[in-house]
Amino acid sequence: MLKKLCFSLYLFSRLNQFPFMTATDIPYYSLAFALISLVFSGTLVWIRIVEYRRDKKGIAVSYAITGDPHGHDSIYLTNLSAIPILVDYWELVWRKKRFIFFNDNQAINLHGEEDLHTVLQPRTRKALNFKDEHSFNWHPKNQGKVKLFIKLHIAGKTKPKYLYVYSPFA
Which runs of E-coded beta strand occur in 3-141? Predict the structure, then answer.
């Protein structure tokens, strides 16, 4: 029994020796393994960055104008990200550009109380409807070159986010 155990240990020790690899070749193999690991981990990091940028899109704005003074106009807010966005307060603003920056803001208060706190669910669209007492003139007179923006106060952000909606004189 002892002879069989010794013989099996001898065979095991002979099988674990690599005849093609000497002690000086070990750093080259470890370098090759390290380079393969570097390429693999770099690829995984690149995939994570692409996924992060894809999911961190934010909010897109579009509009629908009927042209009828008694019609039904809408502004659509689309959440492009994978997380819900809580809008505490929003307002429409005519902004005029002076030199480089937007300096002249004129707010339009047309929202009802039910529209103030809005949750934009992930990858969905929310319509802000303007009809009857909430309708407004999409082509202001004597304003010069102004642009319509929606000012969103998002929960967790210190500054409001201005999103371009419409330019009447474009």
Answer: 59-64, 73-79, 85-98, 101-108, 118-120, 125-130
Q: In terms of DSSP bridges, do strands 146-154 and 161-166 run parallel, antiparallel, or are they unpaired?
A: antiparallel
pTM, 2 dp: 0.63
Q: What are phi and psi of 75, to 5 degrees?
A: -120, 130
Phi, psi at 107, each rounded to 5°: -75, 145
The backbone torsions φ and ψ at residue 93, rounded to the nearest 5 degrees and listed phi first, read -140, 130
pLDDT digits (tens, 9 = 90+) for 109-152: 666 566 678 889 988 999 888 776 666 666 666 566 788 888 89
Q: Are 92 and 108 in contact (CB under 8 A)?
A: yes
Judged by phi (left if over 0) then psi (alpha if -120 to 50, else beta), residue 88 lies in alpha
Report how far residue 110's alpha carbon sits from residue 154's, in angstroms, rounded to the nearest whole number.
19
- According to CATH, the topology of domain 59-166 is Immunoglobulin-like (2.60.40)
Residue type, 69: P
**CA–CA distance, 110 with 104 (Å, rounded to integer):** 19
Q: Identify the helix (H) or strand (E) that includes residue 153.
A: strand 146-154
